[in-house]
Amino acid sequence: MIICHIDRLLRNSISSTVDQILNQIAYCSCPYENSSECIIYNIKLALWEVFTNFLCHGSDSSCSDIRVAIDESDSEILIQVTSIGNEFEWEDYLDNECPNVHEVRGRGLYILQQICHHFSYEQNGQVAKMIFKK
Question: Can you list the domains of the chain with their CATH numbers?
Answer without folding.
Answer: 2-133 (3.30.565.10)
